[in-house]
Description:
Helix 1 packs across helix 3. The strands form 2 sheets. Strands 1, 2, 3, 6, 7 and 8 form a 6-stranded mixed beta sheet that branches. Strands 4-5 form a two-stranded antiparallel sheet. By secondary structure, it is of the alpha/beta class. The longest helix is centred in the C-terminal third of the chain and has 18 residues, at 99-116. The protein has a single domain (2-144), classed as D-tyrosyl-trna(Tyr) Deacylase, Chain: A (3-Layer(bba) Sandwich). A hairpin with a 2-residue loop joins strand 1 and strand 2. Helix content is 24%, strand content 39%. It starts with a strand and ends with a strand.
Amino acid sequence: MKALLQRVSEARVTVADEVVGEIGPGLLVLLGLDKGDDLASAKRLLDKVLAYRVFADDQGRMNRSVSDTGGGVLLVSQFTLSADTARGLRPSFSSAMAPDDAKALFGQVLTSLKAKHSPVAAGVFGADMQVSLTNDGPVTFLLES
C-alpha cells in the first residue's frame, strides 16, 4: 500500500465536469492498493498520514500534522502507484489489488478516515477523475506500508 501525500493550499476532484470533492489547506492523499493489503495495514498507514508532520510550526519547521492544523484531507484512489516500473518502458500492474477488492478496501479506508478526521473529501473509485491542486511548498512524500 502506498500513500502519496501532497501538502496543498487547495485541491479538488472533478468527474464529468462535476466537483465531487474539494478541500482548502491540507493534504491530497493518492492511495495505491496492492495485492495482500488489508484494513489493518490501511488503518496503520492512515494513522501515519494523519500524524505525519508536514506543516510549519511557529518557527517555520515542519512539526505539525494535518490533525494538528485541522486541515482537510482529499483521498483519491490511484492504482498506478502500484505499478512495477523496474523493467522496460511499459508499467506492469500485476501487483495491484483486483478492482472489486480495491473498491471495497478504499471504501473502508474512507469510512475510517471520516471517523478520525474532519474535513474529508474523496474522489470516485474507478472514475475518470481530473485532480487539480496547488502544491504548497512543494511538499510531497511517499508513505508505504
